[in-house]
Design brief:
The structure holds 2 protein chains of 2 kinds.
Chain A lengths: L11 H4 L2 H17 L3 H18 L3 H8 L3 H14 L2 H24 L2 H12 L8 H31 L6 H25 L4
Helix pairs in contact in A: 2-6, 3-6, 5-6, 8-9
Chain B lengths: L2 H16 L6 E2 L6 E2 L2 H12 L1 H16 L13 H4 L3 H20 L6 H28 L3 H8 L3 H21 L14
Antiparallel strand pairs in B: 1-2
Classes of the chains: A mainly alpha, B mainly alpha.
Amino acid sequence: MLTDLYVFADSPVHRARPVVKIAALVVLCTSLFVFEGWIAVTVAGVLVFAGFALAGLGPRHAIVSLRPALWILAAIFAVQLYMTDVVFAGFIVARFVVLILAAALVTLTTRTSEFVDGILSALRFAPSWVPKAQIALAVSLFLRFVPLVRTALDDVREAQRARGLDRNLKAILVPLVVRILKTADEVSQAIYARSFD
Amino acid sequence: MDTRDVVFIALFAAIVAALAVFPPITLPVVGVPVTAQSLGVMLAGGVLGAARGGLALVLFLALVALGLPLLAGGRGGFGVFLGPSGGFLVGWIVAAFAIGFLTELFWNRLNYVVALAICVAGGVVLLYAIGVPWIAAVAKIPVGTALTGSLPFIPGDIVKALVAAGVIVTVKRSYPIITPRSRTQKQT
């Protein structure tokens, strides 16, 4: 099944409207780059820390969010340390940490379905040249088909394992892609048949 | 852009998402994980063409930004775009579009070598031309240093281009979707 990164809880951060959270994130990220310096990073860091505390998220969630970027951040720190000094290297890395944690705070406290609903309802106010129905169709088809493609991928890998080809990427991808393209044609014919347009 | 195109976009975005479940192969010595996901980027362009391939990546990355953990290793959310390597994700859209455009352009002469050249040009050269200056800008390091740091990833991406070119050529033979640029308004 398709799960999001949402952490279930009830807090003012969880209850805030997605639009508000995204707007706050945009403002925070922009100001971190506009007002460069330790003061901005410290203020933003305190705000993000307060947000984590308010939402009831522990250090565990922060570590999970930071882990993928860890090696790149370590490399950047090393390069900056070599080129400038420890203060500046620390600043650059601290800014990344604050940015990533701020984004994680929004992601962990908002269901993807809330975002999608928000986008689809915002589309009502979009100008007429925006293909609203098609965007809505694409998003819902995507959410429906991710699990299906995963199943198809598993099927193809099983079949190719029987032939000893399960380590051959091409032997897996060609049947997968052709199968999905065929499914896409069938789905679009089914949509035409129901007079979606 | 009719309903059939929308379905292709949505399903190919789903393929890119599904490729995240491929176990990442870690290159020996340098210890860089290589995932199948950027292979999906090359395939989106080479199988669907410029507009649909690019939009498939827009759709995929939009839902990643909204918090679905669809990137390799279960990553997702706004944070991945704000991290140092966010430029490579944005570059995926451009790369898929460019690969699609070139594939449409050379559709009637497409063979393995041409497809490989297209995949390397769009999926490696162009992608790094976006991702590397992005790292340099956000981490305030010289472009040369950022490029050196990205070099370990390039062998993996070349391997992916080798695989993607083969898949693109085979899919062209068995289930062609793209309409060549020279002849318009002729659907298969």
